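Recall that a protein's primary structure is simply its ordered list of amino acids. Everything else, from secondary elements to tertiary packing, is in principle encoded there. The following example makes that idea concrete.
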Amino acid sequence: MNRNHGLRYLPWAVMLIVTLCGMVSAQDHPTRGVINVPFDFYISGNKLPAGQYSLDLIAPTYVMLRSKDGKVAQDLYFLQTAVAGKDPVAKVIFALRDGKYYFSQVWSWMGKAQLSSFNPQPGDQTRDVPLNPAAKDKAPAGSQ
């Protein structure tokens, strides 16, 4: 009896599994969001002005932040801190410390993630800003 008979179906099974995983991960989850920040804030010591920003998901722990006018672009790296529960609320958390707001966390359909360049402290107060899904066919201002 030939023991390798079933191996001829292995490539097809692998392709089917990869295709199904791709379909599951490509469900209708947003990959771009928009926040309207009503205050100046800081990321890694850089002061960013109040205004509208888009967040583009590049990878699960890597996001590109861009201002609406295209003058600001900032890479953001995150550490996943919690998986998403049922019906997660999408928002950006800013920490208030010494009278300044710091970009701290993002909560989305992927779960909760802490900005890797920010270390929360027990005395920090927080302020939430809604993260709204952006149209998929719109390119951010200033991009080509």
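Residues 18-26, 137-144 have pLDDT under 50 and may be disordered. The helical segments are 10-25.
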